[in-house]
Design brief:
The chain has 383 residues and is α+β, with helices and mostly antiparallel strands. It has one domain: DD-peptidase/beta-lactamase superfamily (Beta-lactamase), CATH 3.40.710.10. Helix content is 29%, strand content 19%. The chain contains ten helices and 18 strands. The strands form six sheets. It has a seven-stranded antiparallel β-sheet, with helices on both faces. The protein has a three-stranded mixed β-sheet with strand order 7-6-18, with no helix packed on it. A two-stranded antiparallel ribbon has the order 3-8. It is globular and about 55 Å long. The model has no long low-confidence stretch (mean pLDDT 97).
Length: 383
């Protein structure tokens, strides 16, 4: 498998004009393959399997696990009005349009937002870079990136009625803080990263992290890549630790995390969640709603994505679920998601596979990056 993955990455990265990637594969017993190909950006130093990446929305799965730890302890409840714990989500409003004078038109939501809806992206909350309506609303209600005010968005739909990808998991991270009395990063370190031996993952962004970091790049109109010095956690001025996208870490660390989930909540003797909790997290919680369609409002940042257009993906308490076999090998019931700088993971209980692929450039979901993911997956499952 190691040789297949190396060959697949070398060819697909070169074809896509992508400088490098790190890919790791494991199963319930251990690590199967560790591959680093290329460099940390055009002309940069060589990538290694312990290079660091901004994992962006791969943070969401970690936050979801933290939430469920507190649910197990009876300190959070999935189906109560989360506005009683988080006043910023009390009495939510739905954005319905704009008046002739440009003012926003809103109405009261049909019901409260719950923690289950935050974890399943059915709260109605969206992302500005995926919604022209939210971007227009933001021009009327300015807020700095990383500020708590930036989270005070109206809903795009009534809670529970639509799958809309957005800032829901940032609010779930704030629920962890409110219920535990600890900063989110401290909860992660004490209850997830420490027990799992994830020594390279956290919200810190100091010089030691930057020295090992694959720098973020963005695609230019001529097809090249140029540096884009953005910190998805909001930078030094951030007023909260982003449970939706603020972590930096290594592929090695993240493989340990997804192997824990593959193992039903434990790894190397460390029990993170009960097996029944993981089983509940990995079943579909959104009924007939379709997960995985992500529109774009800023195509240079993230393109439009429709995951598995040949099927109707579900969503658990943190992950997308493919109900049918995937085109590149994963079995029905595999769980997956990604980070906006083109980092990806999945875990496939039926096939006993956990896989992590890290790149570090925008736009998310561009065809060359998706071709690398496809080639990697085919190499993992191939003969």
């Amino acid at each position: 498998m190691q040789d297949r993955i190396t060959t697949a990455l070398e060819a697909s990265l070169a074809a896509g004009g992508i400088p490098g990637a790190v890919a790791l594969v494991g199963n319930r017993s251990g690590t199967i393959a560790e591959v680093a190909v290329g460099t940390r950006g055009p002309g940069g130093p060589a990538l290694t399997t312990d290079s660091l990446f901004q994992i962006a929305s791969m943070t969401k799965a970690v936050t979801s696990v933290a939430v469920m730890q507190l649910v197990e302890q009876g300190r959070l409840a999935l189906d109560e009005d989360i506005g009683t714990l988080l006043p910023g989500l009390a009495d939510p409003l739905v954005l319905t349009g704009f008046g002739a004078d440009g003012s926003a038109i809103t109405r009261s939501a049909a019901g409260p937002v719950t923690l289950r809806q935050l974890l399943t992206h059915t709260s109605g909350l969206g992302y500005e870079f995926m919604s022209a309506e939210l971007s227009q609303w933001r021009t009327l209600n300015p807020a700095a990136q990383g500020s708590r005010a930036s989270l005070l968005l109206p809903l795009l739909a009534d809670p529970g009625t639509a799958w809309i990808y957005g800032i829901s998991t940032d609010w779930a991270g704030l629920a962890v803080e409110a219920a535990s009395g600890m900063p989110l990063g401290d909860w992660f370190a004490r209850h997830i990263f420490g027990p799992l031996g994830m020594t390279d993952t956290g919200f810190g962004f100091d010089e030691a992290v930057k020295a090992r970091l694959a720098p973020l790049h963005v695609r230019t109109p001529d097809g090249g890549l140029v540096p884009m010095p953005v910190h998805f956690g909001g930078g030094d001025a951030a007023e909260f630790q982003s449970g939706g996208g603020g972590l930096t870490g290594s592929a090695h660390d993240y493989l340990r995390f997804v192997r824990m989930l593959l193992n039903g909540g434990s790894l190397d003797g460390a029990r993170i969640l009960k097996a029944q909790t993981v089983a509940d997290m990995t079943r579909n919680h959104i009924g007939p709603l379709r997960a995985g369609v992500m529109e774009t409002n800023v195509p240079g940042f993230a393109g439009r994505i429709e995951w598995f257009p040949e099927m109707t993906p579900g969503w658990g308490l943190g992950f997308m679920i493919n109900p049918d076999p995937g085109p590149d090998g994963r079995a029905p019931g595999a769980q997956a998601w990604a980070g906006i700088a083109n980092s990806y993971y999945w875990f496939d209980p039926a096939s006993d596979i956990a896989a992590v692929l890290m790149m570090q450039h925008l736009p998310f979901g561009e065809a060359p990056a998706m071709a690398v993911l496809s080639a990697f997956e085919a190499a993992v499952y191939g003969p």
